[in-house]
Design a protein that fits this description.
8 strands
Amino acid sequence: MAKASLALIACVAAVVATPQSVRAQDSETTVDEIIVTARRSGAPMWQVTRGESTVLLVGAIQAVPAGIEWRPDALEQATRQADRVYFPQQANVSPADIFRVIWRSRTLTRLPEGKTSADYLSPEWQARLDALEATYDEDWSRDSFLILSSELLSDRLGLRDRGNQEVGEVVRRAARRGRVSVTSIGSVRGDALIDDLLTRRPETWVPCIEATIVAAEAGRPAVEARGQAWTRFDVPAVMASPIEAAMMQCWPWGDPALGTLLRGQWISAVEGALREPGVTLAVAPLRVLAETGGVLDDLDRRGFEIIGPDWRADQAED
C-alpha cells in the first residue's frame, strides 16, 4: 500500500526542476534556425511571437510507445540553441509529507469500510469493471478508485513504461549539456496535495474510473494509436483518445481545484515568457495546451498568431 501511495506523489511531481545554469550559446544562431530545427523533431510544437519574444510550446504526452519513431536529436539541438527552457510544475514534498502518506495509506488505497465499487458505480459500469477483473484475474472491488485508475493506466496499459525517450527527459538533458537556463513554471505544496487526496470523497472519482474503464477496454492498441497520432501532429486525434480522456478526468488534472491551479500557472507562465526577449522553449503536457479552454485557446482568444498544427477538430474544417 505504501508503494502505491508514494506513486501518487510521483504523479504530480512529473518534472523535478533542474537547477538553473549559466547559458553559453552561439550568438549567431537565429530564431528561425531554432524553429526549423524544433519542427523536425516529430513532436507537436506551436510558435507564438510578440515583438522580440518567441515562445515555442512543445506538446508532450506520457509514454510514447517503443517503436514509434520521433527525432529527439532535433529537439535536443533546438533546446541547446534556445535562450531558456520552461518545465512543468514541481511538487514541494517534504519527508513529513511522505510519512503522512504512508501513515494514512489505507485511506488512500481502500474504499471506506464496508463499501465496494458497486456502492458507487451504476450496474452498467460495475458490470464493465467486473469484465475487466475477469480479464486480469483481479478483485478490485475494495480498491480506491484513485489507486485503481493508476493501476489500470500505468500497469495494465503500460503508461509507466519507459520504452521510448520522453520529451521532458530529452529537453532536460540537452539544456544541461548546453548550459541553458531552466525554470519550473510553478510549484505545488506537498501538504496541500495530500490534504486534497485525503479529503476527496469516493464518489468524486467516479468520472475518473468510468473514463479509465473505457481506456482499459480499448487496451494497448489505443496507446499505440495515440502515440502514432502524436508523431503525425494529429493533435485532435490524440485529444480524442480514450487514453487521453482518462488522464484528463483523473488526478491531478481532473481534480477541480488542483487542475485549475496547474492550468492557470501554465497560462501565466506563457504570458510571462512573451515578455522575455529571445526564444523560450516550453515543454508542456499536450492536454493543457490543446484542451478546450486551454493555453492555445487562450492565446487564440487574445488575438495572438499561433503557428503550428491544428489543435481543435473544427480547425481542419475552416
